[in-house]
Design brief:
- The protein is α+β, with helices and mostly antiparallel strands.
- The protein folds into 2 domains: 194 residues, Beta Polymerase, domain 2 (2-Layer Sandwich); 126 residues, no CATH class.
- 49% of the residues lie in helices and 13% in strands.
- It contains 14 helices and 9 strands.
- The protein is globular and about 70 Å long.
- The termini are far apart.
Length: 378
């Protein structure tokens, strides 16, 4: 966890003295509504059928989604902020019709532009928030929305990053069109190249916005390869059906899929290397007489594991029990950990998904060539 700077009372007082009356009023309002409680978001899975297909939207829902696009474009209108829409909304825009109901609006913004983004949001009636469970024991229960600045937003390692609509006092507007936007930060390395899992470099072209005009309003779409890349990382049952719909737009190329494949292989290597380093460190601390509980605690001391504990607690307990009854050698601990967390199996499963994506993409290209040859409209 990164160390967080806390200003002294003298520094706070000095900063307040430098504020204009308007800035003081805004600061006081921001502090008053820094923490706000809200009910959990609806479960999106109720909109997915047994065939992993999205439910068709009603006319009212189509209008809501249209309004979301228009509102999103207006938030950043006139600014040079780099942003683009993420996820399956891109697929609907590429098809020219909604592939189904879309509950959330997700966007990518550059981490190094957060100060500029925060300023732009303030002009548009929005703010940066962290969302996390009110009770950690009930992750699907009520949420706390914490209003934060660009620095804390960038440093957050576990909370849900959100842009929320606010009134003049800083209170969240629950009933407004596009009142919540999920945020994905684009992180870059020292060479200014975008990075994904494990610090693996991603193609820069994936992060170049694809401008389009929607009902007279400019909006920014994601590169199709970026949409596919993150969908392949997804574990929801409808991610594959979304991918199939993406290939049917004809926007994804075989070159794109090959780049995605290369990136996933680099990530698999990085994942194995990181896991090996972490497990070697843990294995050195495990002695022959340790119980499963003691072994679990050794794992929990690792910052990387502690950060993901909510998701991996049960399999980690199972691994600790297996290690307790093993010879506790480094090689055996490695073997048991890779088996328990399906590290190799997960990589193989992604390879299969990519091969399927290749077939779908090739089929879409052949179909387009056939239709073009017959003079048919796509």
């Amino acid at each position: 966890m990164k160390e967080k700077y806390i200003p002294s009372q003298e520094e706070v007082a000095k900063a307040e003295d430098m504020m204009t009356p308007e800035q003081k009023t805004a600061s006081e309002a921001r502090e008053r509504y820094q923490y706000q409680e809200r009910d959990p978001f609806d479960d999106f899975m109720e909109h997915i059928d047994q065939n992993a297909e999205r439910r068709s939207p009603t006319e009212k829902e189509k209008q809501r989604m249209d309004n979301n696009f228009l509102s999103l474009g207006k938030i950043f209108e006139g600014s040079d902020v780099k942003w683009h829409i993420d996820g399956a909304l891109n697929i609907s825009m590429a098809r020219g019709e909604y592939i189904g109901i879309h509950k959330d609006v997700d966007i990518s913004i550059e981490e190094n532009e957060l100060e500029k983004v925060d300023e732009q949001l303030g002009k548009s009636g929005y703010g940066l928030f962290l969302s996390y469970p009110k009770d950690q024991a009930e992750p699907k229960g009520k949420k706390i929305m914490e209003r934060v600045g660009a620095k804390k937003f960038s440093e957050e390692e576990s909370g849900h990053l959100v842009i929320a609509a606010i009134d003049e006092q800083g209170k969240i507007r629950e009933g407004q069109t596009l009142n919540f936007i999920d945020v994905h930060l684009v992180k870059r390395n020292e060479a200014e190249n975008p990075v994904g899992w494990g610090g693996v470099e991603l193609p820069s072209k994936w992060f170049e916005a694809q401008p389009m005009t929607f009902q007279g309003q400019e909006i920014h779409l994601s590169h199709p390869a970026k949409v596919a890349y993150f969908k392949l990382h997804g574990t929801r049952n409808y991610d594959q059906t979304d991918l199939r719909a993406l290939t049917e737009t004809g926007k994804l190329t075989l070159e794109d899929v090959n780049e995605i494949e290369q990136t996933f292989e680099q990530e698999a290597l990085a994942r194995r290397k990181e896991a090996g380093t972490l497990l070697s460190r843990v294995a050195e601390k495990i002695s022959p007489e340790m119980s499963a509980d003691q072994i679990f605690n050794i794992f929990a001391e690792e910052p990387r594991i502690a950060q993901a504990m909510e998701q991996i607690r049960e399999p980690l307990k199972a691994l600790s029990q297996k290690i307790e009854t093993s010879d506790k050698s480094k090689d055996e601990i490695m073997k048991l950990a890779f088996e328990t967390f399906n590290l190799e199996a997960s990589a193989e499963e992604r390879r299969k998904k990519i091969e399927e994506l290749k077939r779908w993409t090739a089929d879409a290209i052949k179909l387009k060539e056939l239709r073009d040859g017959l003079g048919l409209k796509n």
